[in-house]
């Protein structure tokens, strides 16, 4: 009984977290928390002469408690800083996923 209960609890805990899939072709020196990371929504244009460092997709399992747009924006900026990028561009938004380009 206990192993089945433990397995069930483990599955529930894993399914409650948001998923983040990222792919970075290159990265720069990580930025500090004081460095600004610009946010560009879907309708904003990316400035010329920018270099795409990678992309990330933030998904929701349906049971997540931290997968709203603002929470994903904070995670995207953190991911951008870790890879030395200073621009986060949203390329897609829907109720289950949020596609983000990370640009340096």
Protein model, in words:
This protein has 104 residues and is α+β, with helices and mostly antiparallel strands. The model is unreliable at 9-16 (pLDDT under 50). It contains two helices and five strands; from the N terminus they run αβββαββ. Strands 1-3-5-4-2 form a five-stranded mixed beta sheet, covered by helices on one side. It has one domain (17-103). Residues 1-20 form the signal peptide. This is DUF4156 domain-containing protein. Keywords: Signal.
Write a concise synopsis of the structure shown:
The chain has 104 residues and is α+β, with helices and mostly antiparallel strands. 27% of the residues lie in helices and 30% in strands. The chain has 2 helices and 5 strands, in the order H-E-E-E-H-E-E.
List keywords for this structure.
alpha+beta; single chain; about 100 residues; DUF4156 domain-containing protein; globular; 2 helices
Point out poorly predicted stretches. 9-16
Which percent range fits the helix content? 25-40%
Instruction: Characterize the main sheet.
Output: 5 strands, mixed
Average pLDDT number: 75
Q: Reading side by side through the largest sheet, how are the strands ordered? A: 1-3-5-4-2
Number of strands: 5
Helix tally equals 2
Structural class of the helix and strand makeup?
Answer: alpha+beta
Number of folding domains?
A: 1
Shape: globular
Tell me what portion of residues adopts beta-strand conformation.
Answer: 25-35%
């Amino acid at each position: 009984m206990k192993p089945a209960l433990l397995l069930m609890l483990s599955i529930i805990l894993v399914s409650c977290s948001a998923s983040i899939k990222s792919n970075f072709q290159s990265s720069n020196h990580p930025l500090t928390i004081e460095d600004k990371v610009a946010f560009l929504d879907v309708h904003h244009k990316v400035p010329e002469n920018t270099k795409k460092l990678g992309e990330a997709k933030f998904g929701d399992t349906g049971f997540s408690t931290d997968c709203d747009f603002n929470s994903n924006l904070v995670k995207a900026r953190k991911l951008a800083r870790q890879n030395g990028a200073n621009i986060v561009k949203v390329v897609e938004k829907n109720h289950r996923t949020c596609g983000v380009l990370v640009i340096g």
